């Protein structure tokens, strides 16, 4: 949850590196700590086991400096990746403003990647958050592995919401800053968007769920150096994006994810894909009722605010009737008391 | 807290962010200063549950505030899970005893933690007594603030534009 403190003139945001065990979350944070300018970073604190596995979290504050008169700070956390530590992982996710999902490019780790991503969705749901509304990016780490899975395949299996993706070799620092920069930008943009919606232009709120996906295509192509290296990947990613954007933008039309799953060729790999693909739409499907479809349907006519208007009037009328009744009863009681106390009855 | 999907825009804004205004912080600072005077504690930090500092009063020496805030929020969050296992919603207070310095934590309202650092110049009983009183007064300030300020004023249009420049400066 973003904290805005007008007294300290500060804005604080929480960013979490999420992903399966040993995928490189702590390494990402260590690189940020090594390379960030001295005046912008705080201490890197780790609560880890003797074997250097994260037990609770790693933490470091990163100061963006003065933004329009407000000192803006990011608190960067990692979670323990091991399945065993889900309760602590969930705690770190509390109040999160943006997530960097660090995936392992080792093909053998793909089931763990998918399981962890699903775990992220589930844990966010427990906090009442929808992943499609939370700024998040995916980093495909360990690109230097000789048997690294292709980016296209990873995209196909993991990037269901068309979010920005980045290739990285975290221990060398490659891809670490572009990932963080994009996510930080998305978080700040979401604060800005929230402000715009609250005060200035209510009509601009409709693309909210679609916005991260729409923005997604841009940084993937511009910020991720590897994406530029592989032009062949671009059309494929672009082709995948509309399907996922459709899924994100129109939660009411459940056919979009189904189409995406059905469109995939029936190979052994898709059998793996099918489980999470079927699972992922299922999670958002839970809240996909009138209430959740609202963000996507607000642009065409903004029915929600209008529908909400008569309600207070109705409530006000009821309150008035109740108030008058209470007054009448009180007056009658007063009259009876007056007469009885003066022995007039 | 209600279901965010069913909230109005302003409710959602209040759910998704925590805003503190200058006049509230002035009142809170006065209250914390009075608390320190009465209890004999060294320092009082008010932090939110996500580990961000709200305000502080008292002597801090060289403590890294950001880190201590994050760790305090983390340890408090961990006790919530313990409480859940015991059938409690959450524990509302915690105490860490050291050889010289001690920390007392207490929940204020449902989103902030009052963190008190104290040494052997006072006792845990004194600190707890006054901390409980202070927590109630702080909760009153939060309630009054919410009624007084109503809608969140936001950060203004310049913020988004400036943020982009600052990101370029830090990361490029």
Describe what this molecule looks like in 3D.
- The complex is a heterodimer of chains A (345) and B (172).
- In chain A, 46% of the residues are buried.
- Chain A starts with a strand and ends with a helix.
- The longest helix of chain A is centred in the C-terminal third of the chain and has 32 residues, at 310-341.
- Chain A is α/β, with parallel strands linked by helices.
- In chain A, strands 1, 2, 3, 4, 5, 6, 7 and 8 form an eight-stranded mixed sheet that branches.
- Chain A has 13 helices and eight strands.
- In chain A, helix 8 (233-249) packs antiparallel against helix 9 (255-263).
- Chain B is an alpha+beta fold and 172 residues long.
- Chain B has a single domain (20-149), classed as 2-Layer Sandwich (Beta-Lactamase), CATH 3.30.450.30.
- Chain B has helices at residues 9-16, 22-39, 65-86, 124-149, 157-171, and strands at residues 17-20, 43-48, 53-58, 93-97, 102-108, 112-118.
- Chain B has a five-stranded antiparallel sheet, sandwiched between helices.
- In chain B, helix 2 (22-39) runs antiparallel to helix 4 (124-149).
- Chain B starts with 8 loop residues before the first helix and ends with a helix.
- Chains A and B meet through strand 1, strand 2, strand 4, strand 5 and helix 2 of A and helix 1, strand 1, helix 2, strand 3 and helix 3 of B.
- Strand 1 (2-5) of chain A pairs parallel with strand 1 of chain B, so a sheet runs across the interface.
